[in-house]
Write a structure and sequence with these properties.
Elements (H helix, E strand, L loop, with lengths): L19 H13 L6 H7 L10 H6 L3 H6 L4 H7 L2 H8 L2 H19 L13 E4 L15 H15 L4 E6 L7 E4 L5 E4 L10 E3 L9 E6 L2 E12 L2 E7 L7 H4 L10 H21 L6 E5 L6 H9 L5 H9 L2 E4 L10 E2 L1 H15 L3 H5 L13 E2 H7 L3 E4 L2 H10 L15 E2 L6 H4 L2 H10 L11 H4 L7 H29 L4 H10 L5 E6 L15 H9 L4 E6 L7 H10 L6 H6 E4 L4 H10 L2 E4 L10 H8 L3 E5 L4 H4 L5 E4 L7 H25 L8 H17 L2 H18 L3
Parallel strand pairs: 1-2, 1-9, 2-8, 9-10, 10-13, 13-14, 15-16, 15-18, 16-17, 18-19, 19-20
Antiparallel strand pairs: 3-4, 5-7, 6-7, 7-8, 11-12
Helix pairs in contact: 1-2, 2-7, 8-30, 10-11, 10-13, 11-12, 18-20, 20-21, 20-25, 25-26
Length: about 725
């Protein structure tokens, strides 16, 4: 946090050009424009640590609730934009000042903790590379699950004081925004991001000029600047090419996350991998190991090889970089593993090959399943697998699938001998837990329970929580969600130019006492959104029965995925049935904010992928820590989480006949929802609570919360892949 610690001073007493001074300067500049009593708020605003503090969001919201929402809950922009009257009122609010001072003291103490004894040397931190980061909705450099996972890992590293820095890209237009029309067809649009209004600072040299790096991309030199964003103790460095020093094509490289043009995406991957390593060097950071979170940064170890072993024989240099590299693969879907034609890949690799003193063909071999096939494309996942001393999938089953999927890279080995393990994903509990459940656990789980989320003993007292209290907390969070949906459904439906009757239907009917089901994830055909509407008669009877169900849907289809868009559109085919208008709401433009509301308030979380195509599925974990129950296919994380008592499951068997499999799963889904889920929710005992439901909820919290927390996940990385890298360095 600017002004609260000096953890970025080097051991010789000099302050590095790593953005620390720049964040201090940005903080001081904003503070000068505001009443002096608001200085603690400014210092809090420039570090996202406030966002997962219990009072942080409400503290800033209390200044001007409407403006805070318009600013996407960005406190820096809020303090820049609020009126003079609002500032004067805030400056004179003694209660606001007290809360700000208390929160600043808590955050200051948190950031001042020394790093733990362990294998990671603070002078040589872990360098985490990822194409997206879901830290907060106000920092729009994320699209979905991969980014949310990366954001959670950074926050957990901060909570554990693990020495870690992160590298990504500053997308000036972020990921696409979504608008769904009245027919259900998705339209995409983008909005510009002004980094000057973010809790960010442009990193400068001691003399005041921006710190830049140069990276060969598109047969030319591209200059990149570096922005620093603090996520608690973790600095996140974002590379940016959108400024006048670059040609228009080069400026576009960091325009959009997952840009549809393949060559631009390749340019992004060169910038992230090669440029990321160069940026760390320019910042004065020598990582002990690099962690590639998905294959987008696969060129990073190649650049690292030339940096740490200049002039060495190729295989020696590559071995040295490999010994410092850890790789996490996140997708078993072939389309999610990017590859490029030989000519494009050769152009991208030529500067790296020149630095290593070898022809590009030698590096192209790394990115082919069969290295000697000179016509095969260059794959970033294949490269990352070959350049990592430790690789992992993101669930136990995904590890198994990945070993089979990539077995040909290691010909002659049995599947068990393929060097791909697994670290099952986990979620950052303080970020995702709702206020009512957090307050309940504060009373029952003991002092400091949020620092012990990975310990089963932490959650053992859940068994003794009075059922009435547990049910009351769940009802509060469902009520909060229903209130949000009533408002949001009106805005979304008016935006689609729906009829007045349709616009009002959900706002008038959505009920805080009705079983609420959530299905929110990226729209892709294998996610099987259509299982909800495949049998319209069943769907209508479920929604409108004596024991009704209300459903919340959200998710984006990739702009290039026409079939996924058609799946979404077909779902809208039932929209004008009265009960659908009243009981089903699709929330446009799914983001971190709406995701948090859904996982906190929904009673049941659905995940219906066609196995084995779900790598993990962290949204269900977020639901679980809020007392939500899972109805999911035994794929991804649920295959290792389900025990028969903590939710409901569909079989995870693989069938080459997808249509037959879908029909069987559809029948099982109908049975579970109609005959088990609905009765368990509505059957109340003499105390007026659903005892069977609460029994499953307690079992879910006790078995799932510790096993699928980010605290456990990060510990698994430290003890597993990170330890492997630190013990195999050349």
């Amino acid at each position: 946090m600017p002004g609260l610690r000096d953890a970025n001073a080097s051991t010789d007493g000099e302050v590095r050009s790593d953005g620390t001074r720049d964040l201090l300067r940005a903080c001081a500049d904003l503070a000068q424009r505001l009443p002096e009593s608001l200085a603690p708020l400014v210092r809090l605003a420039f570090n996202y640590r406030w966002s997962w503090s219990a009072d942080g969001p409400d503290l800033f919201r209390s200044i001007d609730p409407e403006r805070f929402e318009l600013c996407l809950e960005n406190p820096v922009r809020l303090l820049q934009e609020v009126s003079g009257d609002v500032l004067r009122r805030a400056a004179g609010d003694a209660e606001l000042a007290r809360r700000a001072t208390e929160l600043e003291a808590v955050v200051r103490a948190d950031l001042a903790r020394p790093p733990p004894d362990g294998p990671i040397d603070p002078k040589h931190p872990v360098a985490f590379f990822c194409a997206e980061y879901g830290v907060h909705r106000s920092l729009p450099v994320y699209s979905g699950g991969l980014g949310a996972l990366a954001g959670d890992l950074l926050k957990e590293a901060s909570d554990q004081a693990l020495p870690l820095v992160a590298v990504g890209l500053m997308y000036r237009q972020g990921y696409f925004r979504q608008r769904v029309d009245a027919s259900g067809w998705q339209h995409e649009y983008w909005t510009a991001t002004d980094p000057e209004r973010l809790p960010a600072a442009l990193v400068t040299r001691p003399e005041g000029q921006p710190l830049t790096i140069r990276v060969p991309i598109f047969s030319g030199e591209v200059t990149a600047r570096i922005w620093r964003v603090d996520v608690g103790r973790v600095p996140l460095f974002l590379l940016d090419t959108d400024f006048p020093d670059n040609e228009p094509l080069a400026r576009w490289i960091t325009a959009r996350l997952y840009e549809g043009d393949p060559q631009t995406r390749l340019g992004q991957y060169v910038l992230l991998g090669v440029g990321g390593v160069r940026a760390l060097h320019a910042l004065g950071i020598e990582p002990g190991l690099i962690h590639l979170n998905e294959g987008h940064a696969a060129l990073a170890p190649l650049e690292l090889a030339g940096e740490i072993m200049p002039g060495a024989p190729l295989q020696v240099a590559l071995a040295a970089a490999r010994a410092r590299t850890v790789f996490t693969t996140h997708t078993p879907v072939a389309a999610g593993n990017d590859s490029y034609p030989v000519e494009e890949a050769e152009e991208a690799l030529e500067p790296v090959a020149k630095e290593l003193g070898c022809p590009p063909a030698d590096l192209l071999r790394l990115g082919r399943v069969h290295p000697d096939d000179q016509t095969a494309p260059f794959g970033v996942t294949e490269t990352a697998l070959r350049m990592a001393c430790a690789a992992n999938g993101v669930s136990r089953r995904h590890g198994e699938v990945s070993r089979e999927m990539w077995s040909e890279i290691w010909p002659g080995r049995a599947p068990a001998g393929i060097p791909i393990g697994h670290v099952t994903n986990g979620v950052h509990v303080p970020t995702w837990i709702g206020p009512a459940m957090r307050e309940l656990f504060d009373r029952h789980l003991g002092e400091g329970w949020l620092q012990r989320t990975d310990e089963p003993e932490t959650w053992a007292p859940v068994a003794g929580i009075p059922e009435a209290d547990l049910w009351a907390a769940r009802e509060r969070q469902r009520a909060d969600l229903v209130e949000f949906v009533r408002r949001r459904s009106v805005a979304d439906r008016l935006g689609r130019s729906d009829t007045r009757e349709y616009v009002k239907a959900a706002a008038d009917t959505f009920d805080e006492h009705v079983l609420t089901i959530g299905f929110a994830r990226r729209v892709a055909t294998y996610k099987r959104l259509d299982l909800l509407t495949r049998d319209p008669e069943w769907t209508l009877s479920l929604l409108g029965g004596e024991r009704p169900v209300q459903v919340l849907l959200a998710g984006k289809a990739h702009p290039k995925d026409e079939e996924a868009k058609r799946v979404l559109q077909r779902m809208f085919g039932l929209k004008f049935a009265r009960v659908v208008a009243e009981r089903v709401v699709f929330l446009d433009d799914y983001d971190l904010s709406s995701a948090a509301r859904l996982v906190r308030g929904c009673d049941v979380w659905l995940n219906l992928p066609r196995p084995p195509l779900e790598a993990s599925g962290t949204s269900g974990m977020k639901s679980a820590v809020n007392g939500g129950l899972q109805l999911s296919v035994l794929d991804g994380w649920w295959a290792e989480a389900y025990d028969g008592d903590n939710g409901w499951a569909l079989a995870g068997t693989v069938d080459p006949d997808a249509s037959a499999q879908d029909e069987r799963d559809n029948a099982t889904f109908h049975h579970l929802l109609s005959d088990e889920v609905v009765p368990a929710f509505y059957d109340l005992d003499e105390r007026g609570v659903p005892s069977l439901w609460l029994s499953r909820m307690k079992a879910s919290l006790q078995t799932l919360a510790p096993a699928f927390s980010a605290s456990r996940m990060l510990a698994d990385y430290v003890q597993g892949p990170y330890s492997t890298a630190l013990h195999t360095r050349v």
